[in-house]
TrEMBL record, chains A, B:
The protein, known as: Kynureninase
SUPFAM superfamilies: PLP-dependent transferases (SSF53383)
Gene this protein is translated from: kynU
NCBIfam families, alphabetized: kynureninase
Annotated Gene3D superfamilies: Aspartate Aminotransferase, domain 1, Type I PLP-dependent aspartate aminotransferase-like (Major domain)
Signal peptide: none
Length: 411, 411
C-alpha cells in the first residue's frame, strides 16, 4: 500500500460515520467529481420518482394534490433545505429555476429599498446571475455595477445610500473560492442595503448560516450538491422580517393567499408561499425531496468536515504526486468550497482524458479543470485514485490526443 | 342495452381509430374527467420517467447532456407540441411554468410596441393570467384593462394605437367556451397591436392554428390535455417573424447564443432558444416528451372530432336523462372546448359525490361542476356512464351528505 493509499484508508476510517455512499447508485468504475454540476442518483430518489409516477400520478391522479400533499411540497422541501443552509422554518420555498428566483429576489429587493439606484454583482459570477441582474435593472431603471467580490466592501461603502442590493455568490463556480458571507452582508447592511446570496455552489456542502449571517435573500440550486436530479427546481430564501415586504414580480396564482378563491386581485400569501409562481414540476420536486434524505442524521458541520478532508487530501495527493498545475482554488480551508480547480492550457482535453479513465469532472472556460467533491458519496480512496489518474494523464500527455481535443457541443 | 348505451357503442365503433386508451394507465373503476387539470399517466411516460432516472441520470450522469441530448430537449419537445398547435418548427420551446412564460411574452410584446400604453386581458381569465399581466404592466409602466373576450374587439378598435397587446385565452377554463382566435387576432392586428394566446385549455384537444391564425405569441400547459405529468413544464410560442425582436426579460444563460462561452454579456440565441432561462426540470420535461407519443399517427383534427363527439354525447345524455342543470358550456360545437361545465348551487358537493362514484371531475368557484373530456383515453361508454352517475347523484340528492359538503384545502 502506498503512503497515499494508507493515508486515504486512515481518513476513510476516521470519517466513516459520514459515508453515505451506500445511499447512492454510482456506476462501477466511475469516480464522480461532477456532483457540483449534477449530483448523483440516490436510491431514495429513484424509488420516490417511481412512486410519484406510478402510484401518485398514475393511481391518485388529481387527488394526489391532497392525498400526497403535492400542494405543500414547495414549502416542505424548502424547510428541509433551509435546515441545511441555516434558515429556520418558513423562509425557504422550492420553485422555478435559480435564474427565475434571482430575478424575483432582485426586483423584490429593489422595491424594499426605493430611491436607491444601484445593484452590485461580481463580473465573474456564473453568467446567468449577471444577465438576470442586468435584465432586472433595466426593467427597474437601476444601474448594475460589476464589482469583483474582494473589492465589493470598499465599493459598497463608497456607494452608501445609493446602493439597493449586493448580489453575490458564496462560492465561485469556477475557482471554488469561498467568500465571507457575514462580512459582505455586514458591509451592505452598514449602508442600509440588502444582500442576496447565490448558494448554487455551497448549499449542501458546507454551513451557510443564512439566519445567523444576516442574509436578506438567497437562491440556490437543487441539482448540484443536493442531488435532486437534472433540472431539479431551485430554492429561494426570504428572511422572515422581509416576508411582508417581499413583492414578487412574478405574481402567479400559487403565491396567492387563497389560490382557489380565483379572485381577480392578487393578494399574496403572508408566508414564503408568496415566492411561488406556477405549478412546480412535481416529478423533479419530489425526487429532490427524497434525495435530501441522504442528509438525515448528519449535521452540515459534519458534511463540511468530510468535504474539507476530501479536497484537502486531493491537494495533498497532487503535491505528493508532483502535479504542478496552478491551483485556482485556495489551499486554506476557510477559503475553499467543495471543489478543486486547476489551470491547464489544454484544460478541455485534460478533462476528456480523465473521463476516458472513469474520472468525471468538467471543464470551464478558458483553462479550468474543475473537480467537485460531493462529500456524501466520495471516499478518500476515490480522491487518491483521481489524483493518480490526473498525474498519469499529465505524465503521459494524454490530453494531446485528437480524440480528447475535439470539442462537443455541451461540456 | 339502453338507447344511450347502444348510441355509445356505435360511436365508439365509429371512432375506434382514435382510441388511445391502451396507451394510458387509467385505474380500474375510474372515469377520469379531470384530464383538463392533470392528464393521466401513459405507458410511455412511465417507461421514460424510469429510463431518465435510472439510466440517463443514474448511469450517464453529467454525460447525459450530450448522450441523451438533454440540451436539445426544450426545442425538440417544443417542435412536437408545435405540430399539435399549428406552429411550424423552431417557434415553440418548453420551459418554465405558464405564468413565467406569460410574463416573458407580455414584457417582450410591450418592447415590440414601444410607445403604446395599454394591455388588455379578460377579467375571467384563469387568475394567474390577470396577476401576471398586472405585474408586468406595473414594471413596464403600462395600463392593464380588464375586458371580457366578447367585448374585446370593440375595445381594441377604440384603443387603436394605444394598444400594445391583447392577452386572451382560447378556451375559458371554467365554462369551456372556445373563442375565435383568428378574429380576435385580426382585430388586434388591425390597430397594429400584438396578441398573446393562453392555450392551457386547448392545446392537445383541438386545432389551434397559431401560424395560420396569425398569432404573435402563445403560452400553454404541458400537464393538462398533453398529459405530461404533474407540473410538466409549459411551452411558449414566438412567431418566427418576431423572434429577432423577442427581448426576454428573464435573460438566463440557457437562452444565450453561446451558453458555455461564459461571457459577461448576454447575446441571445437567434432562435426560439432565447425564450429559455435556466435549466429545465428534465424528469418532467422528458416525461412530457414521452407522453406526446400518444398523439403519434393522429391528426389534431381527428382528435378534435373525437372530443366533440364525446362532449356532444355527454350533453345529449344529460338531456336524455333529464338532468336539467344549467350548462355553462355552449352547445354549439364551434364554441365548445373539450369540457362540459354545469352550474349547481352545491357544485363542490356534487363533485365530491361523483368522485365517490369513481367519476373524477373538479369544482371551480363559485358554482361550477367542471368535467373535462380528454379525447385520447375516454370512450363514449365512459361518457354515458358519467352522465348516468351524475343523474343518480342529483336524483338521490347525494350532494347533501356532510361528507361531500366538507371542504378540503385543495380541490
Amino acid at each position: 500500500m502506498t503512503d497515499l493509499a494508507s493515508r486515504a484508508a486512515a481518513l476513510d476510517a476516521e470519517h466513516s460515520s459520514t459515508d453515505r455512499r451506500s445511499a447512492f447508485r454510482i456506476p462501477d468504475g466511475v469516480i464522480y467529481l461532477d456532483g457540483n454540476s449534477l449530483g448523483a442518483l440516490s436510491v431514495a430518489a429513484a424509488e420516490t420518482a417511481a412512486d410519484v409516477v406510478s402510484r401518485q400520478w398514475g393511481e391518485q391522479l388529481i387527488r394526489a394534490w391532497n392525498e400526497s400533499d403535492w400542494w405543500g411540497a414547495p414549502e416542505r422541501v424548502g424547510d428541509r433545505i433551509g435546515s441545511l443552509v441555516g434558515a429556520g422554518p418558513g423562509q425557504v420555498v422550492v420553485t422555478d429555476s435559480t435564474s427565475v428566483n434571482l430575478f424575483k429576489a432582485i426586483v423584490a429587493a429593489s422595491r424594499m429599498r426605493p430611491g436607491r439606484s444601484t445593484v452590485l454583482t461580481d463580473p465573474d459570477s456564473f453568467p446567468t446571475d449577471v444577465y438576470i441582474a442586468r435584465s432586472a435593472c433595466e426593467l427597474l431603471g437601476l444601474t448594475l455595477e460589476l464589482v469583483p467580490t474582494p473589492e465589493a466592501p470598499a465599493r459598497i461603502a463608497e456607494l452608501g445610500e445609493s446602493l439597493a442590493l449586493a448580489a453575490y455568490s458564496q462560492v465561485d463556480y469556477r475557482t471554488g473560492e469561498q467568500w465571507d458571507l457575514p462580512a459582505l452582508t455586514r458591509a451592505a447592511h452598514d449602508v442600509g442595503a440588502l444582500v442576496c446570496w447565490d448558494l448554487c455552489h455551497s448549499a449542501g456542502a458546507m454551513p451557510v448560516g443564512l439566519d445567523e449571517g444576516g442574509a436578506d435573500l438567497a437562491v440556490g440550486c437543487g441539482y448540484k450538491y443536493l442531488s435532486g436530479g437534472p433540472g431539479a427546481p431551485s430554492f429561494i430564501y426570504v428572511r422572515r422580517e422581509h416576508l411582508a415586504a417581499f413583492d414578487n414580480p412574478l405574481a402567479g396564482w400559487q403565491g396567492h393567499a387563497d389560490p382557489f378563491g380565483m379572485s381577480t386581485d392578487y393578494d399574496p400569501a403572508a408566508t414564503i408561499t408568496r415566492a411561488r409562481v406556477g405549478t412546480a414540476p412535481l416529478l423533479s420536486l419530489l425526487t429532490l425531496e427524497a434525495a435530501l434524505t441522504a442528509y438525515d442524521g448528519l449535521s452540515i458541520e459534519e458534511v463540511r468536515a468530510r468535504s474539507l478532508s476530501l479536497t484537502g487530501l486531493f491537494i495533498e495527493a497532487l503535491d505528493a504526486l508532483g502535479v504542478d498545475l496552478p491551483l485556482a482554488t485556495p489551499r486554506e480551508d476557510a477559503r475553499r468550497g467543495s471543489q478543486v480547480s486547476l489551470r491547464h492550457p489544454e484544460a478541455y482535453a485534460v478533462v476528456q482524458a480523465l473521463i476516458a479513465r472513469g474520472v468525471i469532472g468538467d471543464f470551464r472556460e478558458a483553462d479550468i479543470v474543475r473537480l467537485g467533491f460531493s462529500p456524501l458519496y466520495l471516499s478518500h480512496a476515490d480522491v487518491v485514485a483521481a489524483a493518480e489518474h490526473l498525474a498519469a494523464v499529465l505524465e503521459g500527455r494524454e490530453y494531446e490526443r485528437d480524440e480528447f481535443r475535439a470539442r462537443s457541443t455541451v461540456t
